[in-house]
Amino acid sequence: MRKYIKQIKEAWVPCLFIALSACNWQTSEEMKSRSPLNDLESLYKSDLRECIVHLDSLMHLNSEKDNLHYFQKARASFKKLEPILAYVDKNNYKALNQPNLLKVEEEDFTNIKITDPFGYQVIEEMLHDERVSKEDLMKNIQLTRNRLILILRNTHLQLKNYHILWLLREEIVRLATMGITGFDSPVLENSLEESRIAYQRLNNILTLYKGNFSNGNLFQLWENEFAKTGQILKADFNSFDRYTFIKEHTHKQLRLLVETQEDWKIGFPFEKALKNDIISLFSTGTFNLDYFTGYDKESAYSEKKAMLGERLFSDKNLSLIKHMSCASCHKKDLAFTDGLKKFPKQKRNSPTLLYAALQKGFFYDNRAGSLEGQVSFVVKNENEFHSDLEELKTFVQKDGSYRKEFDQLYKRGVTDQNIRNAIASYVRSLINFNSKFDRNINEEENTLTEGEIKGFNLFMGKAKCATCHFPPVFNGTVPPDFAHTELESLGVPKDNSEKPGIDDDLGRFDLFGTEERKYFFKTPTVRNISKTTPYMHNGVYTTLEEVLDFYNKGGGIGLGIQLEHQTLPEVPLDLSEQEIQDIVSFMNTLYDIY
């Protein structure tokens, strides 16, 4: 559908390349008297200059071939930058690498910001869209170039050794969960080559810090691993074996990082979303739960709090007329859903609570920012508990058994915040990572079928599922920072007919009335999806095959629905029936045992 845009008819002026390249990275002799951090900054600035040079070239070309050539060189330079830029300047990295979608920020009713995207993904799509004007393309290239110049002018790296290891870990995880999926190469699908370039830069960074190694063999193991990874990534996008790559390389690199921090005698000041000693993406040892609770000691997770929360979770006395509990809509044997399109008097389908703790937004419209906040909405909803937090506290205080446990577990005993925290703690305990898929990718067993592995590779590649359902949780919380949970507009229909209309639920729009947020809903996890039918926020589909057929056709637009801000690509995926079945087979392996 996309074609090359009308080309720019101006001559390239090479003098900028000469001027910027004059300040390139230091020679090997100059490096000897410098610290690793100084050399790292020089390397980083050199990459920034190279990015600027190639973007400037892109603004002065006159052939389709040259445009593509210099865009790819600009992207390659950006991928060299990625490990450092994404660590030291997250906001600018995200701005330069954002999808070609309107950016909407809704802090409150008085602070709603809507901005046009810019950056590399946007340029890539513009270059392949004949409807885009030369003026708009130039504006986007100029914005991207100016931002890079601003970053260059304000760069002064202040990194300790533990920052370097965090930087390495985040990039390794980013490449496994987003880089190899095609997330940031939406048209060219040049993700594997770009990931290879990023790995080369990781190798360069670690080489600068070679003097930190007391174990020379360990550094050599890194060198060997980077070399193997570079060779493996020279592959076709659609046929690349992402399952084996993560199992045999990503996880090996995480283990090498743990060995490196021991060799360097590194002490980390705290843990972020990912634990400092992770050796697998798919494990109960992967995530730091305190990151998702806000590091409040009173609210910190504990097994005893979770056990107390489980009692409250199933207690109908928490509702005003004693008619329902949390478990009424979230049944354990149905992966904590209810098996219904919509629970009576509810607006939307009941989502699973499994892995719900590993996200930053709650409910389909992201209206709650924490599990404790989610409980508040349920308590106050007239079609659910139809109560209030004071009534909730009064009931629990009157129960001697509850009161005793709260006094033992919380400094302030029974408060509405502590009640909600106990229930939230139970939900936070629902993270097992013991599915068939997890056990296999962690090399605990070897039972995945060829079709199941193909299904994972399709999910992570050709089918583009993982560009919204990010591993390892396969939900919309974006790795490797896990600081934001995405909303998407898919164009979900109101029924499963041949020519349906769009469902009348406006989703996120109902919170702030932002026109550009009509029909936006949170991306849920597909873990345990075999037990959570029916699917979508309105329960319109009863089988996974129906869901994949919807995506395969291009979402709502593919069904003939007019939708201005659909985030799902409207281009058909061209998945065969066998490929769809393989993806379903993979998703069925994500069932946990509780």
Count of helices? Answer: 24
Mean pLDDT: 93
Order of helices and strands: HHHHHEEHHHHHHHHHHHHHHHEHEHHH
Judging from the principal axes of the Cα atoms, what is the shape? Answer: globular
The helix content, as a percent range, equals 40-55%
Q: Which secondary-structure class do the elements indicate?
A: mainly alpha
Give the biggest beta sheet: 2 strands, antiparallel
Percent of residues in β-strands = under 5%
Count of folded domains = 4
Rg (CA only)? 25 Å
- Terminal CA distance reads 46 Å
Q: How many beta strands in the DSSP annotation?
A: 4
Poorly predicted residue ranges: 1-28
Q: Give the strand order, joined by hyphens, for the main sheet.
A: 1-2
Describe this entry's structure for a reader.
By secondary structure, the protein is mainly α. It folds into 4 domains: 159 residues, no CATH class; 130 residues; 128 residues, Cytochrome c-like domain (Cytochrome Bc1 Complex, Chain D, domain 2, Orthogonal Bundle); 126 residues, Cytochrome c-like domain (Cytochrome Bc1 Complex, Chain D, domain 2), CATH 1.10.760. It is 47% helix and 3% strand. The chain has 24 helices and 4 strands. Strands 1-2 form a two-stranded antiparallel ribbon. A hairpin with a 2-residue loop joins β1 and β2. α9 packs antiparallel against α10 and α15 packs across α18. The radius of gyration is 25 Å and the shape is globular. The two termini are 46 Å apart.
